[in-house]
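Input/output pair, single chain:
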Amino acid sequence: MSIEKPKPSAPKYHHSSFWLMGWLVLLAGGLMGMLFLPNLYVIWCVLWSVVMLGASVGLHECGHGTFYSSKKLNEILGVIFGSCSFQPFGSYRYAHFQHHQWQGTEKDPTPTPLTPPKPNIFFDWCVKCYIPILYWGGVWWAYFAYKPPHYSFFKKGVEWVVVLLPHALLGWAVPNYTGLCFVSFLLYSVLYENLFTISHHMGLRPQMKQPKYSYAEQMDCARTIPTSKGWVGLNFFYHKEHHLYPQAHWTALPLLHQQLKEHNSLLYGEKETFQRALGRRQGRFHQVLWPKKNN
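Output:
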């Protein structure tokens, strides 16, 4: 595929600072609320799930090294975001890089069905009931358990300790934190699956089997859902553009989207919306993963 590629605009790192301050306010509010108003259990569950969702979004940006220009600052924030969302930063960063290198092939660490899956009554029920098995199996566990080739089992174990230790300390210091965190993780998983997992690549597959696809070819297997709320998901919503420009700052993607549409209109099919992406749940599990044709 030949694509006329415009250049991304300069990163606006002050937008990252504003986003980070908003996330830190939510984080601090959740911690203070759990400590001093523990009876408002439901409120803190919802708020903590939003904190986890924000952490997973920030982790993605730090994994690409684009949250700030400083590599060290990206890594520090990545470790913090990773702990909040139960995803080890080092493994996530390496595995996500592999996802961008090999998306659509069997080397992609995130499970991509290359052959039609068989019908499964249990999975059909989970999809209909909004149980986030697509996120748990296809994203979260793929990154949590991933062991980069250069990692020893000891280093992987240290990563897990870094992720789990803060929650263990909170479980000791905050009443009912363990149960609250578990419920929050369930809510966060539902949010992530329906906002991002289904809209990113679900139901899209390459037109032909190849050992590797270029970034331009990967755009056929990614979905863009234009929105004015880009700050919620940073570079997640403009996912075609993100796969074509994996190192671009999230603030550059809306303009790139407009420029690509003007010069490469065939990259985009009919208008894609959240409703259309979420409508995929109306099908059965194997139809969600492997529809009869790309759309």
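The mean pLDDT is 86. The chain is about 60% helix and 0% strand.
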